[in-house]
Design a protein that fits this description.
Pfam families: BPD_transp_1 (PF00528). This protein has 255 residues and is an all-alpha fold. The chain is built from 9 helices and 2 strands; from the N terminus they run ααααββααααα. The protein has a two-stranded antiparallel ribbon with strand order 1-2.
Protein backbone atom coordinates (compact mmCIF):
# COMPACT_ATOMS: atom_id res chain seq x y z
CA UNK A 1 0.00 0.00 0.00
CA UNK A 2 2.70 2.47 1.03
CA UNK A 3 4.83 1.55 -1.97
CA UNK A 4 1.83 2.12 -4.28
CA UNK A 5 1.33 5.62 -2.80
CA UNK A 6 5.03 6.38 -3.13
CA UNK A 7 5.01 5.22 -6.76
CA UNK A 8 1.99 7.41 -7.49
CA UNK A 9 3.63 10.56 -6.17
CA UNK A 10 6.95 9.67 -7.82
CA UNK A 11 5.15 9.32 -11.16
CA UNK A 12 3.26 12.58 -10.51
CA UNK A 13 6.56 14.39 -9.92
CA UNK A 14 7.99 12.97 -13.16
CA UNK A 15 4.89 13.98 -15.12
CA UNK A 16 4.38 17.40 -13.48
CA UNK A 17 7.77 18.59 -12.15
CA UNK A 18 6.22 21.62 -10.40
CA UNK A 19 4.14 19.31 -8.19
CA UNK A 20 6.77 17.23 -6.50
CA UNK A 21 5.33 15.85 -3.26
CA UNK A 22 8.77 14.60 -2.35
CA UNK A 23 7.85 14.00 1.31
CA UNK A 24 5.34 11.36 0.15
CA UNK A 25 7.93 9.25 -1.65
CA UNK A 26 11.18 9.92 0.24
CA UNK A 27 11.38 8.70 3.83
CA UNK A 28 13.93 11.33 4.92
CA UNK A 29 11.66 14.21 3.83
CA UNK A 30 8.61 12.55 5.37
CA UNK A 31 10.46 12.36 8.70
CA UNK A 32 11.14 16.13 8.50
CA UNK A 33 7.42 16.84 7.95
CA UNK A 34 6.36 14.58 10.84
CA UNK A 35 8.99 16.12 13.12
CA UNK A 36 7.82 19.64 12.23
CA UNK A 37 4.18 18.70 12.79
CA UNK A 38 4.87 17.39 16.29
CA UNK A 39 6.88 20.49 17.20
CA UNK A 40 3.94 22.62 16.02
CA UNK A 41 1.57 20.48 18.06
CA UNK A 42 3.73 20.72 21.21
CA UNK A 43 4.17 24.47 20.72
CA UNK A 44 0.42 24.98 20.28
CA UNK A 45 -0.58 22.88 23.31
CA UNK A 46 2.02 24.52 25.58
CA UNK A 47 1.06 28.05 24.49
CA UNK A 48 -2.68 27.41 24.83
CA UNK A 49 -2.33 26.00 28.36
CA UNK A 50 0.10 28.67 29.56
CA UNK A 51 -1.88 31.56 28.03
CA UNK A 52 -5.10 30.37 29.72
CA UNK A 53 -3.30 30.16 33.09
CA UNK A 54 -1.97 33.70 32.57
CA UNK A 55 -5.47 34.88 31.70
CA UNK A 56 -7.05 33.31 34.80
CA UNK A 57 -4.40 34.64 37.20
CA UNK A 58 -4.30 38.07 35.50
CA UNK A 59 -8.07 38.48 35.64
CA UNK A 60 -8.01 37.63 39.35
CA UNK A 61 -5.15 40.12 39.94
CA UNK A 62 -7.06 42.82 38.07
CA UNK A 63 -9.68 42.76 40.81
CA UNK A 64 -7.09 43.07 43.55
CA UNK A 65 -7.63 45.79 46.19
CA UNK A 66 -3.95 46.75 45.66
CA UNK A 67 -3.57 49.58 43.15
CA UNK A 68 0.05 48.55 42.47
CA UNK A 69 -0.96 45.05 41.39
CA UNK A 70 -3.72 46.43 39.15
CA UNK A 71 -1.20 48.82 37.52
CA UNK A 72 1.26 45.97 36.91
CA UNK A 73 -1.44 43.90 35.22
CA UNK A 74 -2.53 46.88 33.11
CA UNK A 75 1.08 47.56 32.12
CA UNK A 76 1.52 43.93 31.07
CA UNK A 77 -1.69 44.02 29.00
CA UNK A 78 -0.80 47.28 27.25
CA UNK A 79 2.76 46.13 26.50
CA UNK A 80 1.77 42.83 24.90
CA UNK A 81 -1.45 43.99 23.28
CA UNK A 82 0.04 47.04 21.60
CA UNK A 83 3.14 45.51 20.02
CA UNK A 84 3.29 42.95 17.17
CA UNK A 85 3.83 39.35 18.30
CA UNK A 86 6.73 38.95 15.86
CA UNK A 87 8.54 41.92 17.42
CA UNK A 88 7.91 40.45 20.89
CA UNK A 89 9.31 37.12 19.75
CA UNK A 90 12.49 38.71 18.40
CA UNK A 91 12.82 40.89 21.52
CA UNK A 92 12.54 37.92 23.88
CA UNK A 93 14.92 35.71 21.93
CA UNK A 94 17.62 38.17 20.89
CA UNK A 95 17.44 40.87 23.62
CA UNK A 96 16.39 39.06 26.79
CA UNK A 97 18.06 35.86 25.63
CA UNK A 98 21.45 37.54 26.06
CA UNK A 99 20.93 37.77 29.82
CA UNK A 100 19.95 34.15 30.48
CA UNK A 101 22.55 31.81 32.04
CA UNK A 102 24.26 29.21 29.87
CA UNK A 103 25.32 25.62 30.50
CA UNK A 104 28.01 23.46 28.91
CA UNK A 105 26.69 21.48 25.96
CA UNK A 106 26.92 17.68 25.56
CA UNK A 107 30.12 18.06 23.51
CA UNK A 108 31.83 19.51 26.57
CA UNK A 109 33.06 22.77 25.04
CA UNK A 110 30.10 24.76 23.68
CA UNK A 111 27.92 27.01 25.84
CA UNK A 112 24.15 26.64 25.44
CA UNK A 113 21.47 28.95 26.91
CA UNK A 114 19.19 27.30 29.47
CA UNK A 115 16.17 28.57 27.49
CA UNK A 116 16.17 27.30 23.91
CA UNK A 117 14.50 28.98 20.93
CA UNK A 118 11.49 26.69 21.50
CA UNK A 119 11.31 27.87 25.11
CA UNK A 120 11.40 31.53 24.11
CA UNK A 121 8.70 30.93 21.50
CA UNK A 122 6.44 29.37 24.15
CA UNK A 123 7.09 32.20 26.62
CA UNK A 124 6.63 35.01 24.10
CA UNK A 125 3.51 33.66 22.36
CA UNK A 126 1.90 32.64 25.67
CA UNK A 127 2.36 36.10 27.17
CA UNK A 128 1.01 37.66 23.97
CA UNK A 129 -2.17 35.55 23.95
CA UNK A 130 -2.38 35.71 27.76
CA UNK A 131 -2.78 39.51 27.64
CA UNK A 132 -5.94 39.08 25.55
CA UNK A 133 -7.13 36.22 27.76
CA UNK A 134 -6.90 38.49 30.82
CA UNK A 135 -9.28 40.95 29.17
CA UNK A 136 -11.56 38.13 27.99
CA UNK A 137 -11.88 36.69 31.50
CA UNK A 138 -12.27 40.18 32.97
CA UNK A 139 -15.30 40.82 30.75
CA UNK A 140 -16.72 37.48 31.86
CA UNK A 141 -16.17 38.36 35.52
CA UNK A 142 -17.95 41.68 35.06
CA UNK A 143 -20.95 39.79 33.65
CA UNK A 144 -21.42 37.90 36.95
CA UNK A 145 -24.25 39.56 38.92
CA UNK A 146 -23.07 41.51 41.97
CA UNK A 147 -25.87 39.95 44.00
CA UNK A 148 -24.22 36.55 43.48
CA UNK A 149 -20.91 37.85 44.83
CA UNK A 150 -22.64 39.55 47.75
CA UNK A 151 -24.36 36.27 48.60
CA UNK A 152 -20.96 34.54 48.66
CA UNK A 153 -19.53 37.22 50.93
CA UNK A 154 -22.49 36.93 53.27
CA UNK A 155 -21.78 33.18 53.54
CA UNK A 156 -18.24 33.95 54.71
CA UNK A 157 -16.36 33.16 51.49
CA UNK A 158 -12.92 34.76 51.16
CA UNK A 159 -12.02 36.63 47.96
CA UNK A 160 -10.01 33.65 46.69
CA UNK A 161 -12.82 31.20 47.52
CA UNK A 162 -15.39 33.41 45.80
CA UNK A 163 -13.20 33.66 42.70
CA UNK A 164 -12.40 29.93 42.38
CA UNK A 165 -15.81 28.53 43.38
CA UNK A 166 -18.28 31.09 42.05
CA UNK A 167 -16.92 33.96 39.96
CA UNK A 168 -14.57 32.09 37.64
CA UNK A 169 -16.83 29.09 36.82
CA UNK A 170 -19.59 31.52 35.81
CA UNK A 171 -17.21 33.90 34.00
CA UNK A 172 -15.68 31.01 32.03
CA UNK A 173 -19.06 30.08 30.56
CA UNK A 174 -19.57 33.66 29.39
CA UNK A 175 -15.99 34.03 28.13
CA UNK A 176 -15.77 30.86 26.04
CA UNK A 177 -16.79 32.34 22.62
CA UNK A 178 -14.10 35.05 22.80
CA UNK A 179 -11.59 32.63 24.33
CA UNK A 180 -12.28 30.22 21.46
CA UNK A 181 -11.34 32.87 18.87
CA UNK A 182 -8.20 33.94 20.74
CA UNK A 183 -6.86 30.39 21.10
CA UNK A 184 -7.46 29.68 17.41
CA UNK A 185 -5.49 32.83 16.55
CA UNK A 186 -2.75 31.69 18.92
CA UNK A 187 -2.35 28.35 17.11
CA UNK A 188 -2.05 30.19 13.78
CA UNK A 189 0.45 32.65 15.31
CA UNK A 190 2.83 29.78 16.23
CA UNK A 191 4.04 29.87 12.59
CA UNK A 192 5.93 33.06 13.49
CA UNK A 193 8.33 30.93 15.53
CA UNK A 194 10.10 30.31 12.22
CA UNK A 195 11.72 33.74 12.74
CA UNK A 196 13.92 32.30 15.53
CA UNK A 197 14.49 28.97 13.76
CA UNK A 198 12.09 26.86 15.79
CA UNK A 199 11.83 23.64 13.72
CA UNK A 200 8.03 23.66 13.50
CA UNK A 201 5.99 22.66 10.44
CA UNK A 202 6.42 25.86 8.41
CA UNK A 203 10.19 25.85 9.08
CA UNK A 204 10.53 22.26 7.87
CA UNK A 205 8.37 22.87 4.78
CA UNK A 206 10.40 25.93 3.80
CA UNK A 207 13.60 23.95 4.35
CA UNK A 208 12.34 21.17 2.06
CA UNK A 209 11.45 23.53 -0.75
CA UNK A 210 14.80 25.30 -0.36
CA UNK A 211 16.46 21.91 -0.87
CA UNK A 212 14.08 20.87 -3.66
CA UNK A 213 12.69 23.82 -5.63
CA UNK A 214 10.22 21.55 -7.40
CA UNK A 215 8.51 20.87 -4.03
CA UNK A 216 7.42 24.48 -3.40
CA UNK A 217 3.82 24.18 -4.63
CA UNK A 218 3.34 20.79 -3.01
CA UNK A 219 4.81 21.93 0.31
CA UNK A 220 2.58 25.00 0.53
CA UNK A 221 -0.51 22.97 -0.41
CA UNK A 222 0.11 20.35 2.27
CA UNK A 223 0.93 23.09 4.79
CA UNK A 224 -2.30 24.94 4.01
CA UNK A 225 -4.53 21.91 4.47
CA UNK A 226 -2.63 20.70 7.54
CA UNK A 227 -3.36 24.00 9.33
CA UNK A 228 -7.00 23.86 8.26
CA UNK A 229 -7.24 20.42 9.88
CA UNK A 230 -5.28 21.43 13.00
CA UNK A 231 -7.30 24.58 13.64
CA UNK A 232 -10.50 22.78 12.67
CA UNK A 233 -9.98 20.16 15.39
CA UNK A 234 -9.41 22.89 18.00
CA UNK A 235 -12.44 24.89 16.83
CA UNK A 236 -14.63 21.76 16.88
CA UNK A 237 -13.55 20.87 20.41
CA UNK A 238 -14.01 24.42 21.69
CA UNK A 239 -17.44 24.74 20.06
CA UNK A 240 -18.56 21.48 21.67
CA UNK A 241 -17.28 22.66 25.06
CA UNK A 242 -18.99 26.02 24.54
CA UNK A 243 -22.30 24.28 23.76
CA UNK A 244 -22.07 22.14 26.91
CA UNK A 245 -21.34 25.12 29.16
CA UNK A 246 -23.80 27.49 27.53
CA UNK A 247 -25.66 29.57 30.10
CA UNK A 248 -29.41 29.03 29.47
CA UNK A 249 -30.93 32.16 27.92
CA UNK A 250 -27.50 33.72 27.35
CA UNK A 251 -26.53 33.63 23.67
CA UNK A 252 -26.57 30.70 21.24
CA UNK A 253 -23.93 27.98 20.86
CA UNK A 254 -22.15 27.41 17.53
CA UNK A 255 -22.54 23.85 16.24
Amino acid sequence: MIETIQDFFRTLADTYPKWNFIFFHEAAQWDRVVSGFFVTLQLSVACVILSVIIGVVGAWAQGSPSRTIRWIVQGYIQFFRNTPPLIQLLFFYFALGQFTPTVTGPDGWTEQPIISNVGWAIISLSFFAGAFNVEIFRSGIEAVPKSTLEAAESLGFTRAQTYTNITFPLALRVSLPALNNNLINLVKTTTQAIAIAVPELLYEMVSIWNDYASAQNAAMTVLFFTYIALVGVLAFGMNRWEAKLLVPGFGKARR
